[in-house]
Structure formats: structure tokens, C-alpha cells
Model the fold of this input.
Amino acid sequence: STATGYAEYGEPVIFNNLLNNASFESGDFTFNLARLDFRDFLVRYSNNYSELNGYFTNYLPYLLLPEGVLGGEFSYKSEMVDLGELIPTEEALPDTPTDSIAKIPVDSLQTREAVAGVIQVNPNIDFRLNLDIDTLRYFKLDITGLKGDLTITDGGLILNDGRLKMVGGSAEMEGYYRPVQKDKALFSYTVKAQNLDVKRAYEEMELFHELVPAAEKASGIISLDYQISGSLDGKMVPELPSLEGGGTMLVHDVQFKDYKLFGTVSKQTKFNSLKDPNMKEIKVRSTIDNNLLTMERFKFKVRPFRLRMEGETSLDGDLNLQMRVGLPPFGIIGIPIKITGNSEDMQIKMGKRKKELTELEYEDDDLSEEQRLRFNLLRDSISEDMSIEEIQALEQRMDSIDLKTILQKPDSLQQDILLDSLQIQQRIDSVKTRTYRAPAPGPGSIPDSLRN
Done:
């Protein structure tokens, strides 16, 4: 048999075993022994109002038997869902009545002080929902225009084909969430986000706040393609040692201001342009495992320098980074820098390169033969203990040499060029000692660094 009708309810119906204080407010229904169809059903949970269209299956065993599983498939539309009202708290959030789905007073849970466990999911339901949510609020983060498919099954939530907007950009997302205890839950998600406001991301996205502390001193636009999994504690806070994952962050256009790392490097190298750099179109690949975030080598330009950076940071703030400041014009000659300590007390040292930064790489494949010869001569003339000023002086002097003559008349002018190079080296030696003056070289005197 089949029955149809319209219902208005003031007390919880069916949802009383799903979520506390959840109820149907009104809607049209058709039911038989197999399933319950409903249309334009208004559902209230605390201050969240939603509209459902779809059907339940197996509803009688669910109501009558402890092991009964309620099935269903429907569309879910809401102007506002505040996840803070689903989180267990030490004191229940107040119910504020409203008579319109368009008038929803929401007092979002802004801090975690009152949180007393993770969001629970009833293991006896098996739902498939097509989502259309105008605003989804999670603490300080507002996600807008959320659409996607949400499956509730086996006590967990699975999001597929999620499309949304947040922190000034748009994103595609898939994820999984499952509580395993009252104060512990597992999560995993993959996000592909475009054109995010990095400052808002730092302020509104808690995990981004923890993993990218440099964003506190940055402004601009980034994109993300990242997968991460881990666990949440009883305050719904990610447990940092549990995190695993990896992906790519694309820095489109970001301006740093008073970031301590670059400020310290600038002070040590006396390169003022490194203090508050602007970075554009940089791709940073990284992985997270065992409480460490490891960055693969990436390159970026801060005029007039070409920089390279790699290394790892612990999620507790400890640093083990390596940087190379490539000197102009092409960055072939570089200064290795090691960064250790922590975010509060950084240790910046310049010195002998570590193995992975030893090689002088040609970073441009279109260098002319003249340019390559100039850089080879300069490279062979530099000693490991030279200061930044000495390297710059040598490079400036080398730039003044017309190396085209070597390529045109190598036999007749080779000795003159080598003598000129020797004079450069002697000039550097005089800068280092301030007292030593070398005698004029003889015509056959060739420095060891320039011998074949």
C-alpha cells in the first residue's frame, strides 16, 4: 500500500537517532513498505535549516531494530551549514528559533576552548547526498558555493567531486572523515585550489596556518595541488606528527614583508633586495611525513639575484634549509647558505658548500660560447674563502674583459687575457691582505687556476 500527504512537525522525527535535536519541520511525502519519498522537506538541526528531496529505504527496520541501517538518496540544499553546531561541546549551543530558511541567526563556534570531542557520524545510516550549500562554516573558514556528492556510510563521510570557493579562490576537493573515538577522528583529502589569497589562507585555514608559517608575513596569490591525511584530536585539531602527504604549491605573485628568514639572509649577505622579496610563478613541491615537511629544490628570482632553496622543516618549527644566492648576471656563480635553528632563533651561515650544492650548474641552456668561457674563467679564479665583496669585485672586473677576442684569435691573445686574469686575482689578494703587493708578472707567468 501507498500513502501520500503533507506533514508539519514540532518534534524530532526519524532523525532523533541520527543527530541530537534534528527534526523535520514540514514537507510532502509518499511512503510504502519499501521506501519513504519526500519532497520539499524542511529539516532543522540546531540553527541550521536545510531542504531535502529524495527518499529513505529500510526505514522500518531502522526504527524498530537496534542493528537496522537506514538507507537514502536525496538532494540537500541549504543557505548555511555551521559545522560548529555539530561539534560536541561542554555546554550545548543555544537553539535560536527562526521561521524562515533565509533568516538564520548563527553564532559560530570561533574558538576550540569549548570543544569536547570530534564530530560523530551514526554508523547505522547509509546516505548519498547531492550537496548544494551556499555557505559552509568551519570555525573561521567560510566555504561558499559548495557542490558535490557526499556519502555517509560505515560511520564515515566521503566527499566526491567537491567544488567550492574559499579564501578568495576556487577549489576542487575529495575527502574522507571518520571518527574512531569520541576524541579522535581520521581524515584524508585531496585539494586542487586556484588563486587563493595567501593572507586569508593563513588566517582562516588552520592546517595551512600550521604548515606554511611564512604566510604570516606574505600577501598575494597562490594555487595548491595537495593530498594530506592524518588524525584530529579531541579539540578537532590536526595532530601534526600524524600528517602524511605531499603535493605542489604554485606561487603566482607573493610579496613578503618583514619575514625573518629573508631579513636575516639579507643582513648576513648585505644584499638589501633579499629583505622583502617579491616572488612570481614559483613551483614548490613538498612532502610531509614523520613530523617533517621536506621541500624539493626550487628556484626563484629576486632581482638581480637567482636563488635556489631546498631542505626540511619540522612541524615543531626546527629548520634545516639550504639556499644558494646566484650572483648576477646569470647566477652561475653562487653563495651557499645554510639555515638552521628554528623560526624564533634562525642560524644563518655562509661557507663551504654542502655536497648537494657543490656543483656550479648552468641554469640557462641558451648561453653563448663567450658567456660560458667568461663564467669558466671566473669560476676557476674564485677560492672558497673569498668574501661576498671579493667575489663581486672579481666578477665586475671579469665583465670588463672582451672575451670575443679569445674566440677570434686564441693564439695571439691568449697570453694577454691570462695576464689580465692574473692581475684580477692579484687585486683580490690585495683586498684580502690590504698590505701585500705582488710584483708584475712575467710574460710566462700563468696562475695555476687557469692552467689546462
In short: The mean pLDDT is 76. The chain has eight helices and 19 strands. The radius of gyration is 32 Å.
